[in-house]
Amino acid sequence: MANTSVAAKKTPAKRHAAKKLVRIHQVVKYPDPVLAARGEEVTVFDEELKTFVEEMFESMYEAQGIGLAAPQIAVSKRIAVIDLSFKKNPEEKIALVNPQIVEMQGKQLEEEGCLSLPEIREKVSRAAWVKVRAQDVHGEWFEVEGEELLARALQHEIDHLDGILFIDKISRLKRELVMRKIKKAQKNGEW
Ligand SMILES: [Zn+2]
């Protein structure tokens, strides 16, 4: 999911020499086929997975996002990360492995964006509250509940793991307008 905060957008893409070097993955854009595929279940919980999740957080921050799913960096696996605080509060970092929505309630209609669909924003209807069951990097199951933006981010990222983008959830007319915008951007070399 794309960050909506203007302040966060200004963060320069600089590296600190003292910091451990983490691989930054490029975010793929629609219509890359990896975005339409169902991600594979994660069955091995090793060091490689831990490193990969760290890389996902860093790649998300680099792209100015608050949520990222593995298929968005061309890895077709059921892994997603969310940090609504955008680096400000480590407690808000959520790494989800093999997540499933187990309960949902209510409705909300808010604008949504996606790192794989830059500059596109549309109102999307989502559940107002969700409960998600997922594994952590060690394979331990846990539950996370969220409302408002967190509920939206959880649903958006879990959709990615099933090959669903937010533009799949808007009206046909709006989708056609979005497609036109994308085609124009592609033509101008901006996509
Ligand atoms: Zn997205």
From TrEMBL:
Q: Which GO terms describe its molecular function?
A: metal ion binding; peptide deformylase activity
- Active site annotation, chain numbering: 157
Q: Which domain of life is it from?
A: Bacteria
The EC number(s) given in the record are 3.5.1.88
UniProt KW keywords: Hydrolase, Iron, Metal-binding, Protein biosynthesis
Q: Which residues bind Fe cation?
A: 114, 156, 160
Report which reactions are catalysed by this protein. Answer: N-terminal N-formyl-L-methionyl-[peptide] + H2O = N-terminal L-methionyl-[peptide] + formate
Q: Which GO terms describe its biological process?
A: translation
Look up keyword Magnesium and say if it applies: no
Keyword Hydrolase attached: yes
Q: What's the record's note on cofactor binding?
A: Binds 1 Fe(2+) ion.
Q: What class of enzyme is it?
A: hydrolase
Give cofactor(s), names only.
Fe(2+)
Instruction: Say what the protein does.
Output: Removes the formyl group from the N-terminal Met of newly synthesized proteins. Requires at least a dipeptide for an efficient rate of reaction. N-terminal L-methionine is a prerequisite for activity but the enzyme has broad specificity at other positions.
The record's family statement is: Belongs to the polypeptide deformylase family.
Indicate what this protein is called per its UniProt record: Peptide deformylase
- Taxonomic lineage from the root: Bacteria, Pseudomonadati, Acidobacteriota, Terriglobia, Terriglobales
